[in-house]
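Handout, section B. The chain below has 540 residues.
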Amino acid sequence: MSASALEGAPSAHAFGGALTVSFYDATGAALSGQSAYDLARNKADNLSNGYANKVVTALVNPTTLEDLNPGNAPLTPTINATNLTFALPSASAAAVAITWPTSSSRGYSQVTLDNGGAGFGASATVNFTYQAARDLKTRFDTALATRSSATPTFVASAAFTSAQAQLTTDYSTMMAAATESARGKYGWTVLGDIHSAYDILLKDYGQQLAKYKDENSLGSPWLGTTFDDATRSNTNTILGYAQTATTPTGVTANPQYGWVRIVFDIGTTPADYDAAVKNAHAKKLLVMGMPFDSTSARACLPVSSPTHCTPAEYQARFKLYVDHFSNNSNAALNIDAWEVGNEINGEWIDTNPSTGVYSYGSGHIATKVAAAADYVHAHTAASTVGTLYWQVATSNYPLNSTFTWATNNLIATGYASKLDVVLLSTYIEDAPLGTGFDQAMTALATMFGSTPIGLGEFDYFYTDTSRYFWSLTHLNASSTQAAAGAARPALATQYYSAALAYPTSVGGGFWWYFQEEASGTAGSNLRAAIKGVADAVYFG
């Protein structure tokens, strides 16, 4: 079956088979299966970065993005001379999620081949860029139509109108192409067009929706930054940077868009953070307390000889900090929200820190999160926040894939009801979003219903991140921090804004290395990018 013949949903009894995917480069030349797989893993930028072991594909539910690969081993396609082949599950139709450079100027995305939303339930052969462009165009059209009929109605900028016009022209050219080579060639062009237009749509509408909600008492946006060592001597200075970055220009009556996440490091005491919490509140910043980063959730005590953190140890430390920063006569010491679990689906939480052995569920993080949330609700008026980690095509273990884990550990258990806000941590250099941003956030919003959602953590190409993929500015594993610093403002503008483009979203962001990256010229530009979002929301 050719790609152009793929139409409609498979019959209910036709599940299984194999999806064969052929690839062409931007000139229309055929790619080998190995070349295509190397491109998905960004081999060219990662020769010294372990690209050969990077997981970049998954079989997923085309609507929920839950992983459908049998067992708990990641999907590995069969690499053939002229294509890649994916074995389809026998129980349901499936989409194939794969990392891919959708734009020469905007970088990598998670691309979902989903046959127009129906998934693939029987053997078929598709032309990758052609099918991906068609599927993504369907999702883009739906996203635009939804926001064009919503309240507020999307107001197209000149940039969006231009990008959409280019997309319309190039899409017509692609659909008129008569050969697989030409379809593959023009598919590249259309993917790039959609990447640009989709980014503008989400950025612009996020700002428009947040302004509408703020003006109509439907909730102010969260523009968050993170302090991962708030005991440093420069903390108050950086808190001042966070204040100015999240306060609209010239506004003296601070609307309190600004949030700071304060990470309580292992080996410290609650009192070590009194000054930071009080100073943050003095600057009209709201505070989210974080007793456990995802790395310390697996090995909390003692620091010198880490053990697998037990539920009792987790709860005891959580209680210690909640008790200290709640119900104080000095309101400046009372924390506004508690992150009861960070990156809670990360497989590293299920990896024994002493032996390095992974065992699904061994970190007991779902029960830890539920108990911590119960304690917060019973003893404080603060909100509870749970943060998931974005990994679908790149998940090393299907059961730890974002939406699979959330379904099994939060929805099925009822623990989701204990979370007042659900956020998504994303390190796009490890697990791209790109054109998949809207699909991911929509799936998150759908899964958690009326519960507010948002971005809970991101950054770009800091020294201890994986740096496999790039977004908006082309960097590679050897890029300097100066180059990364120059690239970060564009990403901040896009993601702080796009995170606001959903009716139930608070925004968030919580730039992780803000304390390290906010100073100097590059830091000034990063702060200006965040402030630009605050200005756009407040002034329009």
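Note. DSSP finds 13 helices and 16 strands in the chain. Compare this with the example in section A.
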